[in-house]
Amino acid sequence: MISRFRLLPEAASTIAGSVDQLYWFIAAISAGFSFAVAGMILFFVIRYRRRETGREHPESDGVLSLEILWSGIPFLISMVMFVWGAVVFLEMRTPPADSMQIFAVGKRWMWKVQHLEGRREINELHIPVGRPVKITMTSEDVIHSFFVPAFRVKQDAVPGRYSEFWFEATKTGEYHLFCSEFCGTQHARMIGKVVVMEPADYQAWLGSTERGGSRLSMAEAGEEAFAELGCASCHGEGDGSRGPSLRGLAGSQIRMPDGTMRVADATYLRQSILQPLAVVRDGWDPVMPSFQGQLTEDRVLELIAYINSLESGDAAAGVSPVAEAIEENEETPWM
Amino acid sequence: MPDLMPPEVEEENYLNAEYGVRSWLLTRDHKRIGLLYLFTLTGMFVLGGLAALGIRLELLTPVGDLMGDDSYNKMFTAHGIIMIFFFLVPSIPAVMGNFLLPLMIGAKDLAFPRLNLASWYIYLLGAALALGAMLTGGVDTGWTFYTPYSTEGSNTNVTMTAMGIFVSGFSSILTGINFLVTIHRMRAPGLTWFRLPLFVWSQYATSIIFILGTPVIAITILLVAAERSLDIGIFDPALGGDPILFQHLFWFYSHPAVYIMILPSMGVVSEIICCFSRNRIFGYKFVAISSLAIALLGFLVWGHHMFVSGQSTNAGLIFSFLSFAVAIPSAVKVFNWTATLYRGSITLKAPMIYALGFIGLFTIGGLTGLFLAALAVDVHLTDTYFIVAHFHYIMVGGALMAYLGALHFWWPKITGRLYSEALAKVSAILVFLGFNLTFFPQFILGYLGMPRRYHVYPDEFQVLNVFSTAGASILGVGYLIPLCYLAYSMRYGPRASANPWGAAGLEWQTPSPPPTENFHTTPVVTDEAYDYRHLDAELAAAEESKA
Ligand code: HEM
Ligand SMILES: [Cu+2]
User: Fold this and answer.
1) 3-class DSSP state for residue B87?
2) Does B373 contact A81 at a Cβ distance shorter than 8 Å?
3) In this predicted complex, what is the ipTM?
4) What is the mean pLDDT of chain A?
5) Nearest chain B Cα to A16, which residue?
6) A residues 208-237 lying closer than 8 A (beta carbon) to B
7) What is the pLDDT of residue A312?
């Protein structure tokens, strides 16, 4: 027990160092401030302890210059913290263009992970070292939160919408993966590990089918589902189709009936599949049936991976254009 | 000290004016109602404390060995709900505010005495509902009731608990209205706004939050209950609702609710510091007005609880900025209290130890808020033990220290009896030390990444958890001692004079305990608040003429 005891968390991602620097900056300011206040209080209490004679009261109704000074300086310092925190935060929120895409679904009480190449895992996440990884995730039931302390990242997985975050591991090894949003009975047991591997090992791991391995990539599985569910009967390639062709759709701008534009990101695609009447495109009739209740979140993700792959016309390639689109998906500042 | 001779025969006062259970249960006297709250809240605190004990014992080991998963979840939910909604929110306003407000402004009672009694019954009904829900199956949502867990994920007694909180909210609203009207309409002649004691200012600010904020949580909770029973799609995404909407509504109340807990504490601390350093508060107007500013600005920062919820980046930036801005008036108050000590004449009586302890713990609690306001750092720390430590420093280190300080400071006025100063000092110091040992390690735990609401955790977190549990036992003892000597003093304590601390303020100009009508003659105010210079001169003259 003692041997595993530590006072500082491991830092194993590119962002961890920046977060720690700001953390220690704030810690140093706070410590200085606390000791200053505590020191003053102790000093005054001793220096001005009650004596029976010669008591003399100061004029202490406030000194304006002093008050301006001691509001102004903390304000400036706090603005440094604000800007610094914001800059690092923006970095956390901006996945590099070459990020590798992985999908995750939170479900009581496990994390289900799908790699584009088809490999699936539960409560484990294998990733290569030195490569930005972007996770798109949702939840099948209640809100969960994906937390990897060693990477200093955390993001809620909210049912009904996709959220996204990224990180780049800098050290191989195994790290805790926690669910940090209370989700019921086994919340404390919804833990797993992130395994960071050398790229070659990761490739080998992806190729192996020992556990949860699948010969189909996500996009291929999506293509199968697409065929099985009969989507192609409307979303054909020809002109006479009842629905729009999906080729090149992902990541493009869509016009809604009220004239507003919207990016066809993962959230839009998911909604179009599950609640198609809520997001009918301009120029098309609201005839698509809802697939709500017929598809698991994993299945929806496969369909999206397939639609994403349609841009290049190659169902086996799995690079997603959805990535860039999601950052722009900030409908209102409050949501 | 101007300890006038204790009266030989007991004068008629609010405690002995009437006898019998009925006279208490039907009283319209704000002082008696304050005591009714004191007893009920003490009961709630004990219940919440026992739950805390259960939580801490479970956390002693990294495996879930003391209780099952569901029991633990129900335990911390009970702890949180009882402590927040049924102890902290009403604590200083309902107990001390009720007792002191009319006395401090020279009034005979609150503006609406019957409404005041009704508030207590409403509180009682709410508490009964919530406790009933906990006894008949329990609740496991955490005190935050996040959807869709609370609407469809949990099959515990969420609706009944929600009703308990909903009902008790009316008690807050009514108390707020009562206080506002009283402060506006019933001040003694000469008691202008800028002569008001800071405690009154802080109650004024708190009442505003009660009135503006409580309806929001009431409606939110009602919507949760409605969604659970009628399946309407407000928060549940399966029904087309938005789970994040709940968080916006919830924190729109619950962030200001933190100020409900802390503003009255600031008022108490201002009173105590002035009295035991015999100085006028440094920067009276700033301290008074900033309470109002904090109350109003407190409504603008709720989004800092949701930086990782999927809220947009822009919203995150705005909420982060505002949170830093609101922190400044609180920081400046710490400077004002410290400066008040400068060239004072300081005595370290028990209430003063509590007040100085408050400054220390509140400072740490407030400074750790900066970590959470800084976006990038919050992402790592939120929903970890860092949060648990942070809010305990503010709510327990801050609000509870001030509550205990207030209880000790005004105890002689409330009961007409003095308690054992030595025991009081020992317990104040035990509380301070036990508190830090309990909660400081949790900052480190949080930075290491231990999530909150976990009772099963990786081994490497154990050492710090053991420290924390050890601290909690010291803290528990620290709380138990006052319970004993205060109860003892009610009957056997030496009689207190009208003004045992030589304090300024109208409440000290009437006998202890005060008569039912508070003052035999309506006081007229001619001095600024905390005019200790004047008061000490008077006291010295009085002593000389006696000699
Ligand atoms: C001996 C004193 C106390 C101890 C040892 C203690 C311990 C704890 C612990 C360990 C938790 C975390 C539970 C978790 O997240 O797993 C917790 C949560 C909490 N505590 Fe305390 N606590 C104490 C006193 C108080 C007091 C006096 C208050 C308020 C007056 C309070 C308010 C809360 C609240 C609101 C929560 C959040 C509950 C939730 O997560 O839903 N605690 N406490
Ligand atoms: Cu979870």
Assistant:
1) helix
2) yes
3) 0.93
4) 84
5) B380
6) none
7) 45
